[in-house]
Design a protein that fits this description.
Blueprint lengths: L34 E2 L2 E2 L2 E7 L5 E7 L3 E5 L4 E4 L3 E2 L3 E2 L9 E2 L5 E5 L6 E4 L4 E2 L4 E2 L2 E5 L5 E3 L5 E10 L2 E8 L3 E4 L3 E2 L2 E2 L12 E3 L5 E5 L10 E4 L3 E4 L2 E2 L9 E5 L6 E3 L5 E7 L2 E6 L2 E5 L1 E3 L2 E11 L5 E6 L5 E5 L2 E5 L3 E2 L2 E2 L18
Antiparallel strand pairs: 1-2, 3-4, 4-5, 5-6, 7-8, 9-10, 10-11, 11-12, 13-14, 14-16, 15-16, 16-17, 17-18, 19-20, 21-22, 22-23, 23-24, 25-26, 26-28, 27-28, 28-29, 29-30, 31-32, 32-33, 33-34, 34-35, 36-37
Length: 358
């Protein structure tokens, strides 16, 4: 059964008849008001699904506690002990990671304490030394976790007295650091605090991330992979069928970057006046008429290992929904288990596994 995890509120609006394609069946698997693993769910922020069909979701619990649940238990919760007694601080709920082993990971950056934490007991905090680099703090809100267990995150290293250099790490090594050049792109401003979903990792451990994604001073925004690939605005597309065409923009909207296990990077871009979803192999789908609806893609999208994509869309008029490989599969004119959908203007990530479930 194809599954989608909606957030339902008490305000449900009557809607017209179903209009979407029906090769998906949708099931409510969790909602506000449930109690899972003894902890009440008072809000849902994001959901992930792995290749076994196991679902994890994040949100708030009573007392403004951040938490990540599986369908049967609490995986991570603010205030619990992690990695030999480190207390898990408040964390960013909508950027958590979840892999095929059922491990969840979160990152925390702020007054509650900095660090990266996993449900199987890893705690990486300021003062941790990895590959000779001692982390000073300032963790990015984004964290990535491959199905092979590669934990990837972004934090600062004091490379000289008073000089803090943003660095991409995995659990054992430094992957990239400001001051380096990858695929011809100078790494000057890796990641950005407060921007969601701008980090990914493939099953070979290669990390993809944004460079110069500062909202207030964007410069030449780039997307870089430690596999040796990069895209940068105001530069030509480097390879494939679009080689030489000018990259006008790379979206830094929430959840604009997705990386599958094979290393394909999916993002929203505009290349020579054509806006849409792109990988390094070229255009996946252009903004415009999608399955009979004049749609525009937002940032939330994902790509699985066989190249299937999912993205949310809006026609800015009456319909918001999700499209899978150019077919609309659900809109806010539909119902799930008899409930009329109030809104599908997605505010969080969408996650697609290798079986096509999302």
């Amino acid at each position: 059964m194809k599954r989608f995890l909606p957030v339902l509120t008490s305000a449900l609006i009557m809607a017209p008849a179903v209009s979407a394609q029906q090769f998906y069946e949708f099931e409510i698997v969790a909602q506000e008001g449930d109690t899972v693993g003894g902890l009440a769910v008072s809000g849902i922020s994001a959901a992930r699904i792995n290749d076994s069909g196991d679902i994890a979701f994040s949100g708030g619990a009573p007392g403004s506690v951040s938490a990540v649940w599986s369908m049967t238990s609490v995986l991570l919760a603010e205030g619990q002990g992690i990695g030999g007694g480190v207390i898990l601080p408040d964390f960013r709920r909508d950027t958590f990671a979840f892999n095929n082993a059922g491990v969840a990971a979160v990152s925390s950056s702020g007054f509650g304490g900095d660090g990266v934490f996993t449900s199987n007991g890893t705690a990486i905090t300021p003062g941790t030394t990895i590959d000779g680099a001692t982390i000073s703090g300032n963790f990015d809100v984004n964290v990535a976790l491959s199905n092979n267990g590669d934990l990837v995150f972004i934090a600062d290293v004091e490379t000289a007295p008073g000089v803090f250099t943003t660095t991409v790490f995995n659990s054992n090594s430094v992957l990239a650091q400001e001051g380096q050049t990858i695929a011809g792109i100078a790494l000057t401003d890796i990641g950005s605090i407060g921007i969601n979903g701008l980090l990914g990792v493939d099953n070979s451990g290669n990390a993809a991330f944004f460079n110069n994604a500062d909202f207030f001073n964007p410069g030449e925004i780039g997307v870089v992979s430690t596999a040796g690939f990069g895209l940068e605005t105001q530069s030509p597309f480097p390879s494939g069928p679009l080689a030489g065409q000018n990259i006008l923009s790379l979206s830094t909207a929430s959840f604009a970057l997705a990386v599958n296990g094979q290393g394909s990077i999916l993002l929203e871009a505009n290349v020579d006046q054509v806006g849409g979803l792109y990988t390094q192999d070229g255009l996946v789908v252009a903004n415009g008429v999608i399955d009979g609806v004049d749609g525009f893609f937002f940032g939330a999208a994902d790509l699985n290992d066989d190249g299937t994509y999912v993205s949310n869309f809006s026609d800015f008029n009456t319909i918001n929904g999700f499209v899978v490989n150019d077919e609309i599969v659900i809109t806010d004119l539909d119902t799930i288990e008899g409930f009329d959908i109030d809104s599908l203007l997605n505010g969080g990530p969408v996650d697609l596994n290798n079986n096509g479930d999302f």
